Amino acid sequence: MNNCIVIIPTYNEIENVESIIRAVLSQHKHFHVLIVDDNSPDHTADKVRLLQTEFEGRLFLENRKEKSGLGTAYVHGFKWALANNYEFIFEMDADFSHNPNDLEKLYNACHFGDADLAIGSRYVTGVNVVNWPLNRVLLSYFASVYVRMITGMQIHDATAGFVCYKREVLEKINLDKIKFVGYAFQIEMKYRTFSHNFKITEVPIIFTDRTKGQSKMSNSIIVEAVFGVISLRLKKLINRL
């Protein structure tokens, strides 16, 4: 059985979902794909079902009843991947902001290197972001600076959503305790990994903003991240993380 699964959450990604699936499944390294769809009104899930006949045994779909947030979608996918015995479990966006060609770099960092969590990092070698407005770049960059100051994690891209976990990390983390949904979810997963003394490695990538579909960013996601980091640090200090 293949040991690598790429989890891609979707909500109204009909314009991107077929292309991203084909791009991932055409990589030299043999990956499987799990789409976790939140009952998209644009029928993203129906497109995935059609593609499953072409990619039988490599493309899987979990169709949730409603839009419940990025964090819960990934937790759903993590539990599915662990139950199905995958060793390397990836997070990836559907909109090509993460280049499928970089998946193997993350895999190599975990399989051949010593990483337990490999992060596709926009900022470890400078600022490698294409087509983002300056205010968005600054928000993302200084969010990671803020996270380093509060948590002590020496990670340049704490909000990155392009990562590879070894299964041992997800087995150790209590996934039922994960509550955040947006940027804060990505920070929380890294902080829990860090708190369990797993090895975290940043792999430089180039991030390109989506050209199709709409961003899911909102003010509530930003607020959650700002206050969520403080909450995580306090829980760690009182041994309740």
UniProtKB/TrEMBL annotation:
From the broadest rank down, the organism's phylogenetic lineage runs: Bacteria, Pseudomonadati, Bacteroidota, Flavobacteriia, Flavobacteriales
Residue ranges annotated for the Glycosyltransferase 2-like domain, each copy included: 6-173
GO terms assigned for molecular function: dolichyl-phosphate beta-D-mannosyltransferase activity
Keyword Glycosyltransferase listed? The answer is yes
- Give the keywords, sorted: Glycosyltransferase, Transferase
Q: Entry's SUPFAM superfamilies? A: Nucleotide-diphospho-sugar transferases (SSF53448)
Gene Ontology biological-process annotations: glycolipid biosynthetic process
Checking CDD domains in the record gives: DPM1_like
Its name, as the record gives it, is: Dolichyl-phosphate beta-D-mannosyltransferase
Residue intervals passing through the bilayer: none
Which GO cellular component terms are attached?
A: membrane
UniProt lists the family membership as follows: Belongs to the glycosyltransferase 2 family.
- InterPro entries, per the entry: DPM1-like (IPR039528), Glyco_trans_2-like (IPR001173), Nucleotide-diphossugar_trans (IPR029044)
Q: Does the keyword Lyase apply?
A: no
